[in-house]
Write a structure and sequence with these properties.
The chain is an alpha+beta fold and about 300 residues long. It contains nine helices and 14 strands.
Length: about 300
């Protein structure tokens, strides 16, 4: 009966969640984006060091629909979005659940500046649907979302809050600790913050900035200290992407992590992909913020601890 009682207590929140998702879907449909579906089980996840996939036979559960959606872009689908379930092993806590809902979208002939415009409009539409208006009340913070949003580079943010500039190839362990402990808690406190231009060594699937090879065109959105979205100006060079993937796989092997096969379909398609921008946004965290909930499990019907 404990679960039934919990579900009854969540009814208002889950109703707001449905309205938020409906508003997001409407945002994309009104702008002529095509809603797509990609597999939940994949043969070759992206080999990112900080993500651990869930094995299922000779496949893995998708940590993101990114590689498949980019193949659609390469095939000529110019504006696409998806709201889907994704899975990341060993991720649990106040801000994490091993299974969660992700919004991911891509637009051709765009860069990460266009994604920032999208993110702002999506948050405004979702806030209106949730009844939050122009101010997101989260804990003891009031964040004004209907104003000019802050934009700060990673280098400037680290200098301001961690008292050093990380450079193009920082020590990843120190960088991650300082990001979590010193930088992130200071972002998006009065207005939402775009954290932009990550060190070049952290480019992942993003492209290097043309006028500054020390950084890549990557943006993360923060509201009330919560990381909400991660977007790129996309890399569309298959040779460079293969090199990065092989480097990531070598590092995974050195750390004793699963070594995935390369997604040859994705790599072969990449050179046919137009200049594009893509972004992933955590639906559950957005609902947390708009409903003023401090635990991600409070905005899910059946979280992992149920």
């Amino acid at each position: 009966m404990k679960l039934i009682s919990s579900l009854k207590d969540k009814k208002n929140t889950l109703t707001a969640r449905a309205k938020i998702i409906q508003a997001i879907r409407g945002f994309f449909i009104e702008r002529d984006f095509l809603e797509v579906e990609t597999p939940l089980r994949v043969r070759a996840p992206a080999p990112e060091l900080h993500l651990k996939s869930v094995a299922t036979g000779d496949h893995w559960l998708a940590t993101s629909p990114e590689l498949q959606m980019k193949q659609l872009m390469a095939a000529g689908y110019e504006r696409i979005f998806q709201i889907c379930r994704v899975f990341r092993d060993a991720e649990s806590g106040r801000m994490h659940n091993p299974e969660f809902t992700m919004l991911e979208w891509y637009r051709a002939d765009a860069d990460y500046a266009a994604l920032m415009d999208d993110m702002k409009e999506i948050v405004l539409a979702a806030a209106q649907a949730a009844g939050s208006g122009r101010t997101v009340e989260y804990g003891n913070l009031s964040v004004n979302v209907d104003t000019e949003w802050e934009k700060i580079t990673v280098s400037d943010a680290f200098e301001k809050f961690a008292v050093y500039r990380p450079g193009p190839d920082p020590d990843p362990d120190r960088f991650d600790v300082d990001m979590v402990d010193k930088v992130e808690p200071e972002l998006g406190i009065t207005v939402p913050t775009f954290l932009i231009d990550y060190p070049a060594s952290m480019c992942s699937l993003s492209r290097i900035k043309k006028d500054n090879p020390d950084v890549c065109e990557r943006v993360e959105l923060y509201i009330a200290g919560v990381e909400l979205a991660n977007g790129f100006s996309e890399l569309v060079d298959s040779h460079e992407q293969r090199r990065r993937f092989e480097q990531d796989l070598a590092q995974r092997a050195a750390k004793g992590l699963d070594v995935y096969p390369l997604d040859e379909n994705f790599l072969n398609a990449l050179d046919h992909m137009p200049p594009s921008a893509g972004c992933a946004l955590g639906i559950d965290r957005l609902v947390m913020l708009l409903c003023n909930k401090q635990n991600i499990h409070d905005v899910m019907c059946f979280p992992s601890d149920s």
